[in-house]
Amino acid sequence: MASPAVDRAPRRAAHALRAATAAAGLATALAALAAAVAWTVVEREGGRAHILVGTAACWVAAAGAWYALRLAERRGASERWVTIAVVLGLLVAGAAALAAPPSTSNDSARYAWDGIVQKAGISPYRDVPASDTLAPLRPAWLFAGGCDGPSPHFPTGDVATASIPSGSPLCTAINRPQVPTAYPPVAEGYFLLVRLLLPSNAAWLAFQAAGLALAAAVALVLVRLMRREGRPVSWAALWAWNPLVFLEAVNNAHVDVLSAALLLGASLLSARKAGSSGVLFGLAIATKLIPAIALPGMLRNRPWRFVAGATLAVVGAYVPYVVLSGPAVIGYLPGYLSEEGYASGDTTRFALPGIVLPPLAALVVGLAAVLGVWIWVWTRRHAVAPATAQAMAVGWTLVIVCPSYAWYALMLIPLAVLGRRIEFLIVPLALEAVTATVGTDAGPAVSRVAMATAAAVVLLVALRRRRDARCR
Q1: Which of 31-35, 62-66, 382-386, 412-416 has the lowest mean pLDDT?
Q2: Cα distances (angstroms) measured from residue 322 to each of 111, 205, 216, 425
Q3: 180 by DSSP, 3-state: which?
């Protein structure tokens, strides 16, 4: 008769083989994800087609990597092993995103300039980048004498303008150099913090690295929450390995990753500490105004305390800049909203109602639909988990409004993961298609198809979830 130890030997060998196979499959999938990210962000000929193909490859590779991680988890991989894999995957693909300058957005050029100006003790709301007053502060990587010669190297292109009031030719990587900044004060504080310890000639890598650090912080918080709630740690990879994080939070260095982190913190505190949750929510709004769309899901317990905390945070963030700038602190924000089509509607805003309605009517119907979503979420705020309500408010608002910029959806991903509503991850993917085709002849059609597809997926999953709940 064989001993128990001998009987267990084949099982141990089989288990080791399965673990090794899972690890090899995951390593291959993560390598493919990193390669897809690197290929997408490195400047090549092909323009929008290159970006579209690369972005699609990133999403396919990310889906494969997440499936491989879930498979390893189901085969008995430990929480510690999965946690290491999540963090390692984020760092490897994040390093690939750092391998090139911002590929599709020059927003970080404005971030850097606002930080440089503040470092010199000047309000970013007071003078425009093209002002002759600020000429001594202009670094060579952001400004040149004219676009007909050597110009700032920013893959997204340079802006030909003129200094004010001298009228001398000026070439800059900063978009809208003739207007003041449109960013709220917490974002401006972040820009200053990132630039504070750097010389003015330090280029875009600083904000890319800061974006990766913030993305890693959010990933670690999600890992801890998954472990605390007894949920699969692999769910955290839905953020940590998301292509939108690598392409927009890291490579393009969008400040929206900061507002996403603050909004996640507000969500975690919303059920227990209304005042503290309100403060973080206010700071998120004072980073980018867009997190305000999560408000209906935030108003749970002691709403007046929450509103007071949010108001205090926003007012407190603005006070120093109001002292320095006065009414100019509003910056270019009103002009920006009008320019982006939110004031009068255009052929890409409110794409869902725009399928059957002209732009102005789509705007009215779309705003009414957003209001209806907010009321519906607010009435259900106690029937679902806080993050679930917030994910529904944010997700449906983005679907209805259809912003041109996919990075607005960064704040949705942690809420969808925490609130167990991963069907809303279709929204960032749909917005990637919108962003890649905005301004083209195909843009309006792509926007409508993408948003209709996202809405259909979310509705079908919701109906199936409701049917399954009734069957139990």
Answers
A1: 382-386
A2: 19, 30, 33, 38
A3: coil
Q: Which residues lie closer than 8 Å to 68 by C-beta, 6 or more apart?
A: 22, 25, 26, 28, 29
The tokens for 442 are 């195909």
Please, are residues 108 and 174 in contact by the beta-carbon 8 Å criterion? Answer: no
Task: Please give the DSSP secondary-structure letter assigned to residue 170.
Answer: E
* Residues 47-90 pLDDT 10s: 678 888 899 999 999 999 999 999 888 888 889 999 999 999 99
User: What whole-number distance in Å separates Cα of residue 388 and Cα of residue 245?
Assistant: 21
Written as six digits, the tokens of 213 are 């650090």
CA distances from 144 to 174, 202, 206, 416 (A): 11, 16, 21, 44
Local structure of 197: helix, strand or coil:
coil
The answer to whether 34 and 95 are in contact (CB under 8 A) is: yes
Give the C-alpha separation, 408 to 11, whole Å.
49
Question: Rounded distance, CA 134 to CA 181, Å?
Answer: 14
Q: Do the bridges between strand 143-144 and strand 169-172 make them parallel or antiparallel, or are there none, so unpaired?
A: antiparallel
Contact 263, 192 (CB under 8 A): no
CA distance 6 to 37: 47
Of 405, 456, 404, the residue nearest 426 (C-alpha) = 456
Give the CA-trace dihedral at 331, 397, 225, 69, to 10 degrees. -110
Token pair recorded at residue 186:
């917490």
Tokens 């005042």 sit at which residue?
275
